[in-house]
Design a protein that fits this description.
Order of helices and strands: HEHEEEHHEHHHHHEEHHHHHHHHHHEHE
Largest sheet: 3 strands, mixed
Strand order of the largest sheet: 1-9-8
Mean pLDDT: 92
Number of domains: 2
Distance between the termini: 31 Å
């Protein structure tokens, strides 16, 4: 890497097979595509890009760094109100049912991008770096890390399946606007305080990269400059709001116009970070570019215990898809349960009294159900006490002390009774099989993994990669994302995932089985 000389020769097929097997066995190595990365490098005259940060979103020269900032996309969805989206039997919108113009606040989004680009530029002067070399080069190139989070939530709330052409169109358009406006703002700053120090040496290459970004925003599949692999361009026909494609083109027109006149203040402007921690603070249902991981989540309470909720975007998605409040409530209750056994089928207050439960113990059970993953977690010696198990329910000491005690089964409830009561009380944690939910709407609620015990549906590996491919042509850096694979995925599946990522011009792929 330092001299450019060949030190060892390997058989490509054997190396490829080893990479696939290692990824299948341990999820490592994550793959980065060196040629694609450097084809989009804005400063090749200053050296090649050799690697990224561990999360893979920041790809630039050695010994540089950037500060990150992410926008919660749901906050730009005006009021959570949208016209009902009429859908065909496929569950996809018809040509005349695009999101209404009030749906996404483009003006506010552009303003936020502009504001945070300026804020991140200021942060370069305020940042503290771990070494003198990193500090000097970061000042010299002034790379920024603006991104977004909660696109999975935005898509679900808008009634679009993550694995759909409309979702990828919306993602591509929003990403194109973000980076286009960020670079235009960077060029504006350059007009006032000058371009970054290394810009003169790299001006021709950076403008070429900007032109490629702009071309992808306009939508052609070919005609790109010095790219080994053509990107996946913005498909205007699939973008649910025509205003977004207009804004994307406008942003990149302005970026290239101002950049040609003034250069750019920053060598990079955007990345898509994982936002795993900051996403919680921003009240995001989903992180980065990720889909939802699960429909029902348990939040730990500061005072102890847990609180079970369905994702905030599910009720809004049901409303957008045309369900009444009563229908939506029944669907949500199916997923999260009613947190009571009073009138549950099979195991309820009446049947429990017949088994020896007192009113005091029933109240104790009820108070514990709201935070329970399963009703079996409530019916145990720690909740009810050994004395009650031995004297009230007539269990033997050996039964009460057994670590695998299934108390409800031990006192005579059938497996069917327990399962029915558990679903009524704790919910299924999935929408599959929910009363009144139309089959064609299920894809809207697909997550990275099957949800609950009954859930079978989950997003395909390719859907993750295709969503990244929709965004990558409009990201200055790269994308931090996990490609979720089922446990039964094979070595060949892992290799196919890497191959598809390369063919779609991604810069990196990190998979997890």
């Amino acid at each position: 890497r330092t001299t450019g000389k060949t030190t060892k020769k390997l058989k490509a097929r054997a190396l490829w097979d080893s990479i696939g097997h290692a990824a299948w066995a341990s999820a490592d190595p994550g793959i980065q595509f060196h040629t694609t990365i450097n084809d989009w490098h804005t400063c090749p005259k200053s050296g090649p890009i050799r690697a990224s940060n561990p999360c893979s979103e920041y790809m630039f020269l050695d010994d540089t760094a950037c500060n990150l900032a992410s926008l919660n996309l749901m906050l730009f969805r005006k009021g959570g109100q949208s016209a009902s989206v009429n859908r065909q039997s496929t569950g996809r919108p018809t040509a005349d049912t695009r999101l209404p113009t009030a749906e996404f606040d483009i003006e506010a989004y552009e303003h936020a991008i502009r504001l945070w680009t300026i804020a991140l530029e200021i942060s370069v002067l305020m940042a503290q770096f771990p070494s003198r070399q990193i500090a000097e080069l970061s000042y010299r190139f002034r790379t920024l890390g603006l991104g977004y989070a909660n696109i999975g939530g935005l898509l679900m709330a808008s009634g679009f399946a993550y694995d759909s052409a409309e979702a990828r169109g919306l993602c591509g358009a929003l990403t194109a606007i973000m980076t286009g406006v960020a670079f235009a703002t960077s060029a504006e700053m350059a007009s006032e305080i000058g371009a970054f120090e290394a810009y003169p040496d790299n001006a021709a290459d950076m403008l070429r990269v900007i032109r490629n970004h702009r071309r992808a925003a306009y939508g052609p599949k070919d005609g790109y400059e010095k790219l080994s692999i053509a990107p996946v361009p913005l498909d205007h026909a699939t973008v649910p709001d025509a205003r977004l494609t207009e804004a994307a083109r406008r942003a990149w027109d302005r970026a290239i116009e101002l950049g040609q006149s003034h250069g750019f203040r920053n060598a990079q402007s955007t990345v898509i970070a994982p936002t795993g921690t900051i996403g919680l603070v921003m009240d995001c249902d989903t992180t980065g570019i990720e889909p939802d991981f699960a429909l029902v989540k348990f939040k730990k309470l500061a005072g102890g215990g847990y609180f079970k909720i369905i994702n905030q975007t599910v009720p809004e998605a049901l409303r957008v898809l045309g369900y009444s409040l009563e229908e939506a409530k029944a669907i949500i209750d199916y997923a999260v349960g009613l947190a009571t056994l009073r009138t549950a089928p099979g195991v309820n207050h009446e049947s429990l009294r017949a088994k020896g439960f007192t009113e005091e113990k029933l109240k104790l059970v009820e108070s514990s159900l709201a935070s329970a993953f399963d009703i079996k977690f409530v019916f145990n010696r720690w909740t009810l006490g050994d004395d009650f198990l031995l004297k009230g329910l007539k269990l033997t000491a050996e039964q009460a002390a057994a670590p695998d005690l299934d108390l409800l089964a031990a006192i005579g409830f059938s497996k069917q009774d327990i399962e029915a009561a558990n679903q009524y009380c704790c919910g299924t944690m999935t929408l599959e099989g929910a009363p009144g939910l139309k089959e064609e709407h299920l894809p809207v609620f697909d997550c990275a993994n099957p949800c609950g015990r009954k859930g079978k549906r989950f997003l395909s590996v390719d859907s993750h990669i295709q969503m990244m491919a929709a965004a990558q042509p409009f990201i200055s850096g790269a994308i931090s994302k996990t490609i979720n694979m089922p446990n039964e995925a094979t070595v060949e599946d892992c290799k196919a995932s890497y191959m598809l990522s390369w063919r779609l011009a991604l810069k990196a792929n990190a998979l997890y089985r």
